[in-house]
């Protein structure tokens, strides 16, 4: 018996190489799409450090023993301090808008986080029936409806 082997012609080898390279390219594109779809746009609550203190200048709020406390001579209710603290913590989790220009002027609010030794500087300004909160260090900007500003700024809570 003769030993017949299947030999590929030059054209068949070329076709095999083209098909193999095309399959590898398709596989790399699909894997890239899977990886990009699995990334999370906003951080989960466990990834964001805990907000431990908010300094509004004349009023300071501290998170101590699982509750917010007022540390200043000005008085706001514990309930209002809790609302303000939770709203600023939620702001750290929310999606920001791109900053269109430089950091605007306005009231400075210092945010102290559990994992940082220095405060995060934020500026609060008002325009077009909204409150803008800008984090100077990260150039993140958040737009909050003007009607909700009382839930973020303690000096406004006394004016109810």
UniProtKB/TrEMBL annotation:
Top-level taxon of origin: Bacteria
Keyword entries, A-Z: Membrane, Transmembrane, Transmembrane helix
Chain segments annotated as transmembrane: 12-35
Record's protein name: Uncharacterized protein
